[in-house]
Design goal:
480 residues, alpha+beta, eight-stranded mixed sheet, three-stranded antiparallel sheet, binds zinc ion
Length: 480
């Protein structure tokens, strides 16, 4: 039997998070608005109106193009893409075609296997969104609120080789969009939409076979499931002597299946021509430079740097670059701590991330600052407080906003690490529990943990665990 590999390209539509729409002053985000309440003559396509380009959309589009390593053209054009659909009031969409804002580009995608897959970008342009159509009770309802919302359409080459790679690409793209602040990247809300082109070929071959296009995949999980289903279908078809046809398929997430929508249109059907109501989009070198200075260190670059500079395992580096606030938080803490970065990583991955999760906020909204965290870690390092107290202290700082040292002082949380004080507590525990002491001495050494618990309770959790263990063992053996 032939071994097959999949050849996948992704077409994404990214909603830019500008305040207003791309060619009019209507609010761009209509998520909470009732249908058809956020429209004007321009975006509703009434006759006699003229589009005015939103500079913020161009800025965000350029920033994204730069982050994708694309060339940004100083002169590009808007074109009309003509098609007829009820949710497109003008009968055309203003888009970019042959001379678009972005040219080329790629994303170097780290794969879980450790390889890096270069995913090329073959198309990156600005366009306006169309409206939304909803079928209900056999009727068609149309909401024009989304008309004119700024989008970047970005298409990859046929560079992905499995459903997992496609999912990875979307995960990294979403991370990048949020990182550079151009889109919320929320797939459920349609900020990031994806169609997948899928074909198969004999493993190792370089030919490109007929592909199908999967539409309406609204989550990373749906992308993974739909592509896997389609690869499976094509293999069965080809194995049984059939031919893959260039269908457009619709993913039905509820039933986890693909339905044939139509045989695919070709580009010629859109009768593109230059948009006569808009001037060419001309950028000055200075303006472009001012945009590029806004481009921060990107997540994958920072991930690699964290592994090199701080010697973090890949797993840690991945989590600590999950979003920009947590990444900045980690780095500020490491710089202030001046000790082993892995220690900071452990505190953040275990304690801070849990706290953020519980509070439902990003790291830049924490009251517990990197400086606070450093003070807590140092007190634990120095033995002023034990580890458990340190962890509990984080929540207290977050709640009160007081410096950690002040809370330790006020609440008397300093670790009991004085031999005499701890010895007295241990003596008390042993005297109160003669039966357990005999059991231990008869060989039930597993009771040590139970004795540790008693001592911790007596000291309200403040005993130095190492010293307690040592003193307890001595006392139980009758050496105390
Ligand atoms: Zn409008």
């Amino acid at each position: 039997m032939t071994d097959y590999e999949a050849v996948i390209g992704l077409e994404t539509h990214i909603q830019l998070n500008t305040t207003t729409k791309i060619f009019c002053g209507c609010k761009a985000d209509s998520w909470e608005e009732p249908p058809n309440t956020n429209i004007c003559p321009v975006c509703a396509g009434l006759p006699g109106v003229l589009p005015v380009l939103n500079k913020a959309a161009v800025r965000k589009g350029a920033l994204l193009a730069a982050a994708m390593n694309a060339e940004i053209r100083l002169k590009s054009f808007f074109d009309r893409k003509n098609y007829f659909y009820p949710d497109l009031p003008k009968g055309y969409q203003i888009s970019q075609y042959d001379v678009a804002l972005g040219n080329g580009g790629y994303l170097n995608l780290p794969m879980p296997s450790g390889e890096v897959r270069q995913v090329n970008i073959v198309k990156l342009h600005l366009e306006e969104d169309a409206g939304k159509t909803k079928m209900e009770h056999g009727r068609r309802y149309i909401d024009f609120n989304r008309c004119g919302v700024p989008l970047v359409e970005m298409v990859t080459g046929p560079d992905l080789r499995s459903a997992d790679e496609a999912a990875q690409y979307l995960i990294r793209l979403r991370q990048l969009l949020r990182w550079i602040g151009v889109s919320e990247g929320n797939m459920e809300k349609g900020h990031l939409r994806c169609d997948a082109n899928v074909s198969i070929r004999a493993a190792g071959s370089t030919e490109l076979n007929t592909k199908t296009e999967i539409k309406n995949v609204n989550s990373i999980e749906a992308v993974r499931a739909a592509i896997n289903k389609e690869i499976e279908r094509q293999i069965v078809l080809v194995e049984s002597g059939g031919r893959v046809e260039a269908w457009t398929l619709d993913w039905d997430d509820t039933h986890q299946r693909l339905n044939k929508m139509r045989s695919k249109e070709t580009e010629a059907d859109y009768r593109y021509f230059r948009e006569p109501d808009l001037l060419p989009l001309e950028l000055t070198e200075e303006w472009l430079q001012s945009v590029l200075t806004e481009l921060p260190e990107l997540p994958l670059e920072r991930r690699a740097r964290f592994m090199n500079e701080y010697d973090l395992p890949e797993y840690d580096a991945d989590i600590l670059t999950g979003d920009r606030p947590i990444s900045d938080y980690f780095e500020s803490t490491v710089k202030a701590y001046q000790g082993d970065p892995k220690v900071v990583s452990n505190w953040i991955m275990n304690e801070i991330l849990r706290m953020l999760n519980e509070l439902g906020i990003d790291a830049d909204k924490l009251i517990l600052s990197p400086e606070h965290l450093v003070q807590v870690i140092k007190m634990v390092d120095e033995g002023t407080i034990n580890n458990a107290t340190g962890k509990a202290l984080l929540a207290k700082v977050q709640e009160s906003g007081k410096p950690p040292a002040a809370i330790v002082e006020q609440e008397g949380l300093a670790q009991v690490s004085d031999d005499l004080a701890l010895g007295a507590v241990i003596d008390k525990v042993l005297v109160e529990h003669p039966d357990e002491v005999s059991s231990y001495r008869e060989g039930k050494e597993g009771l040590l943990g139970w004795f540790m618990g008693q001592v911790m309770r007596e000291t309200r959790g403040k005993a130095d665990p190492g010293l307690t263990r040592e003193l307890l063992q001595r006392a139980l053996k009758g050496e105390g």
